[in-house]
Amino acid sequence: MENKGKVLMKKYELERLLGQGNFAKLYYARNIETGQSMAVKVIEKEKVSKVGMIDQTKREISTMSLVKHPNILELYEVLATKTKIYFVMECAKGGELFKKVLKGKLREDVARKYFQQLISAVNFCHSRGVYHRDLKIENLLIDENGALKVSDFGLSALKELKHQDGLLHTSCGTPCIRGTRSYTPNGL
After folding, report:
1. Does residue 41 have a known ligand-binding role?
2. Does residue 55 have an active-site annotation?
3. Which residues lie closer than 8 Å to 121 by C-beta, 6 or more apart?
4. 38, 49, 72, 121: least buried by Cβ within 10 Å?
């Protein structure tokens, strides 16, 4: 890993790679001053620019700053250099809900709790004119206290983008890449 031990802006030490997508890498990091665990999403400006996703990246930043809720992954700050954008976020140490489900059936009380937390987060977003549009089990994380956290607002839309017909005339859901499929109904 090329960033192991790298200190970002004299504030955060990137410790290990947690995951990687088409346009970003996610690192576990630690705040040097407080010792607090963080997640840092590193986006290559050139990559998102080449595919015309600069506006989408800006929208993700705007959206995440509008949705402060106990069941939504918190964005602490955004940093940038000439070549990269860094999202410094809350670290959900419990990982993806998807991985918990792969291990076996959830107890009914636990599943009910997660469902209630998801509905609370979605209701909060909608009350602020924010539509996630890529809700899937891989975008639902669990923190160290067992609370559900909605993440990845990269495909979100804001109410002001609605047309007069009441629809959001943009694509939504994770694109089908490398044999994966995902579908999210418009407006979620």
Report:
1. yes
2. no
3. 69, 71, 72, 148, 150
4. 49
Q: Which two tokens stand for residue 44?
A: 């290559």
pLDDT per residue over 96-132, tens digit each?
Answer: 999 999 999 999 999 999 999 999 999 999 999 999 9
Q: Which residues, 6 or more positions from 174, have their beta carbon under 8 angstroms from its beta carbon?
A: 134, 136, 155, 180, 182, 184
Element (DSSP H or E) covering residue 56: helix 54-66
Predicted model pTM: 0.80
CA 151 – CA 55 distance, rounded (Å): 19
Q: How far is Cα 122 from Cα 129, in angstroms, rounded to an integer?
A: 11
Domains of the chain with CATH codes? 7-90 (3.30.200.20)
**Segment-wise mean pLDDT, segments of 10 residues, the chain, 188 residues:** 76 94 92 96 93 88 92 96 96 94 95 98 95 93 97 84 53 49 35
Per-residue DSSP letters for 80-104? E-SSEEEEEEE--TTEEHHHHHHTS
